[in-house]
Amino acid sequence: MKTTRRFFVGAAGAAATWVLGFFRARTVLAAPERALDAGVPVAHPDAGTASRAPASLLQLARERYGKYLDEAQLKMLETKLSDSEARSKRLHAFKLANSDEPASDFRPVRP
Amino acid sequence: MTDADLLFTPIRELAAQIRSQQLSPVKLTEVSLQRLQDHGPRLNAVVTLAGRQALDQAQQAEREIASGQYRGLLHGIPYGAKDLLATKSMPTSWGAAPFRSQQFDYDATVIRKLADAGAILVAKLSMVELAGGMGYRNADASFNGPGINPWDQNYWSGGSSSGPGSAVAAGLVSFAIGSETVGSILTPSAFCGITGLRPTYGRVSRHGAMALCWTLDKLGPMARGADDCDIILAVIEGVDPEDPTTVAPPRRTPRMRPRWRIAVPKGALEFVHPEVGRNFNQTSELLLSFGEVAFNVALPEFPYGPVASTIVDAEGASAFYELIESGGLRHLRAEADRVGGYGGAMVPAVDYLQAQRIREKMRRPFQDLFQRYDIIALPSRNTVALPLAMDFNQAYPELEKERPANFVSPIGSMIQAGNLLGLPALAMPNGFGRGNLPTGFQLVAAPMQEDALVALGTEYQRRTDFHRHRPPGF
């Protein structure tokens, strides 16, 4: 697809409007990130950590799921994605070696 | 003994009466069905009553026992199953409106094994929709309403095995089968004052159980006492060709050891309800009579919460991808559940794999820990049951307010670590807290060490009577 100047200006404007909306949403809805415990959510050390999802991820979320969600739900989703971003940082702050393999149990032949 | 007393009686005692034909399985089943009908609705505990089919099974059990064909300790005992276990005779709702009429043409392996043992399925019991995998934040997260605690009906029964928790606590069934991904047997057991056993991952077949997270889901018994749980586990465990993650359990010999080595994690009593702390201290005193109790034992340091939640989000979104992509989440009950799955579907693959790689790194430090200790003991939950009327994080603001932002509760960590590592755990009541709601504690052991949990738990319950208390009015 050819990217024209008009397209770029339009996209930048839309992104700016969206980012402002996002910050407003964070002001109103920001809640401590909570680690899942299907029994009961419990706080973990990221509680209160300010983090936000990349604008492109939020844009993608709106494109994929916006049709199913109203504005309040979209704001909840933005909060969820920002929490996921903070969680991602914590996960990747844990140092692993190249040889550290995931817990997986694929077996070419079932017992 | 009144009719209600029957369903508060330990399985071994009921079985002796049934075997000697002093107690009719038909009578016992009728009592259970009647109590489910009378009390189930006000606890939101029941999705489907078995009715005629259960009575037919009970009559068959009675005939078999009369003719000397006694199948074992569960023969003629009525039970309920969390409504995520497939049954060909009843719908299986997964607690969620989009699936309320879902019908399978086969029985889950656990259901089949219990039927083979002569146990009588009297009801499919309520649960948090999709086992809580979409991120619910308050009790009102089941298509048939919040699970209500029989000890105080303004409080939640816990989740996601909410119906099994309240139905067992209220004496509507002799036992129930629940499931746990990250806390869903331990939590309702604690909140409802019953005994719940989370088996080692792979010890019990998941075939026919709703998948939330293939690498975390477990099925286990929720019952009156540790001995009951052991009896049930002996029936439902074992290799199942339909579930390739199942493993052969070791030979069963629950017995007390001369000297137990018990660890209590550091910080286990910080930022808990005072009664939770007080009751656990009393429990610890009793545990001291069983051997050595080491306090302030440091748990290995890992980001348990982020690892567990990443895996649940990603696997849950994969398991329910069709529902998510079709917009079906809008039919769920809880506001947070109508959104959470979309976030789960956007977890990057590298985050999921990072979580699984960290999970693997947890294995060795816990192996080392279990070289030094037989059992880890700590409260099951930080508080008593949560009130129905508010979001979980608003329930006990004094604890939230006091807790430093970087405090990691070893109670939450141990639930997460125990599930990530597939460790067995036994939750038992140990007293009462505010509002006369139950408090509880958990014992956690190395993989396949359920015998140790049962032996210690049975001895604890021989010396205490918390598991015999009944909610007022039941």
Quickly give the CATH architecture of the largest domain in chain B: Alpha-Beta Complex
Could you say which structural class the secondary elements and strand pairing of chain A correspond to? mainly alpha
- The unreliable regions of chain B are none
Low-confidence parts of chain A: 1-38, 41-48
Query: What is the count of DSSP helices of chain B, taking H or I runs of 4+ residues?
Result: 16
SSE succession of chain A: HEEHH
What's the arrangement of strands in the largest beta sheet of chain B? 1-3-2-4-6-5-10-11-9-7-8
Radius of gyration of chain B: 21 Å
The end-to-end span of chain B amounts to 14 Å
Q: At the fourth CATH level, what is the homologous superfamily of the largest domain in chain B?
A: Amidase signature (AS) domain
CATH topology of the largest domain in chain B: Amidase signature (AS) enzymes
Number of strands of chain B: 11
> What would you call the quaternary organization?
heterodimer
Tell me, rounded to a whole number, the average pLDDT of chain B.
97
Strand order of the largest sheet of chain A: 1-2
What sort of overall outline of chain B do the alpha carbons produce when their principal axes are compared?
globular
Biggest β-sheet description of chain A: 2 strands, antiparallel
**Secondary-structure content class of chain B:** alpha/beta
What percent strand of chain A? Answer: under 5%
Q: Domains counted in the coordinates of chain B: how many?
A: 3
**What would the principal axes of the Cα set say about the shape of chain A?**
flat
